[in-house]
Design a protein that fits this description.
The chain is α/β, with parallel strands linked by helices and about 250 residues long. It folds into 2 domains: about 120 residues, Response regulator (Rossmann fold); about 120 residues, Winged helix-like DNA-binding domain superfamily/Winged helix DNA-binding domain (Arc Repressor Mutant, subunit A). Helices cover about 40% and strands about 20% of the residues. The chain has 9 helices and 11 strands. A 5-stranded parallel beta sheet has the order 2-1-3-4-5, sandwiched between helices. The protein has a 4-stranded antiparallel beta sheet with strand order 6-7-8-9, covered by helices on one side. Strand 4, helix 4 and strand 5 form a beta-alpha-beta unit. The longest helix is centred in the last third of the chain and has 18 residues. The chain is elongated, with a radius of gyration of 19 Å. The protein binds calcium ion. The site of calcium ion (CA) has 5 residues, from loops. Calcium ion (CA) binds next to loops.
Length: about 250
């Protein structure tokens, strides 16, 4: 999951960032409204955490600009103000949730999970796709109840496939999701991760393939997995990777 925190109070921004990073999210921070709006133009965030009192503009103006740009990214507003009027104003301007400072890290994380679920029309924090389950809170993937051992990056790919199930996800989106726009390796690395995931899932499910390749467009997850022939398991592999690329896929 990738989040943007727009907050000028450095200690609060750091606290939120470290809570998010501990939770396994990629997290960007912006200290002004204009910086935040720029970042939203370039990246697809799963959620934005927005402080109302920023040095260059009011958070409500930022909210309005996000919504006027047709972005549906869920937004949690943070504020020291807590009158009913303030809350109503933010919710009317397009905020999805409102949290009054000071707030607990646990409550913030719970609210992030809740708005991301709502934004993606998920009713529970466990995404079920046939015999496959992705538990977003405990970060566990199981097939027929057996847990698959995944690395952090492999889990991040499964999380994105699950949250966006039914959609075709371009390789660029996976890279953004995994690396958060920083030191991104070549797109081919995504094929390597997918290949590893298919092998792990096939091994535990008796050869089922859940991830479909949409040629030239990306990957999607299947509601009804098919049994994948053993020798075709690697046919989606592209050119061989360099040692550095292989290292960064592990
Ligand atoms: Ca502030």
């Amino acid at each position: 999951m990738r989040l943007l925190v727009i907050e000028d109070e450095i200690l609060i921004a750091r606290g939120i960032r470290s809570a998010c990073v501990d939770e396994g999210f990629a997290c960007h921070t912006a200290q002004t409204g204009s910086e935040g709006l720029e970042m939203i133009k370039f990246y697809d965030y799963d959620a934005v955490i927005l402080d109302l009192g920023l040095p260059d503009m009011n958070g409500v103006v930022i909210l309005e600009r996000i919504r006027n740009s047709k972005k549906k990214t869920p937004v949690i507003v943070l504020s020291g103000l807590s009158t009913v009027d303030d809350k109503v104003r933010c919710l009317s301007a397009g905020a999805d949730d409102y949290l009054t400072k000071p707030f607990s890290k646990i409550e913030l994380l719970a609210r992030i999970y809740a708005i991301v679920r709502r934004a993606n029309c998920l009713h529970s924090s466990v995404i079920t796709i046939g015999p496959l389950s992705i538990d977003l809170v405990n970060r566990i993937v199981t097939i027929y109840g057996s847990e698959i051992s995944l690395t952090g990056k492999e889990y991040a790919i499964m999380e994105l496939l699950g949250i966006k199930k039914g959609s075709i996800i371009p390789k660029e989106t996976f890279l953004n999701h995994i690396y958060g726009g920083l030191d991104e390796p070549d797109l081919k690395i995504v094929d390597v991760f997918i290949c590893k995931l298919r092998k792990k899932m096939a091994a535990i499910s008796g050869g089922l393939n859940f991830i479909e390749t949409i040629w030239g467009r990306g990957y999607t997850i299947k509601e009804n997995p098919e049994v994948r022939a053993r020798n075709s398991a690697d046919k989606d592999q592209v050119e061989p990777l360099s040692i550095e690329e292989l290292k960064s896929a592990s």
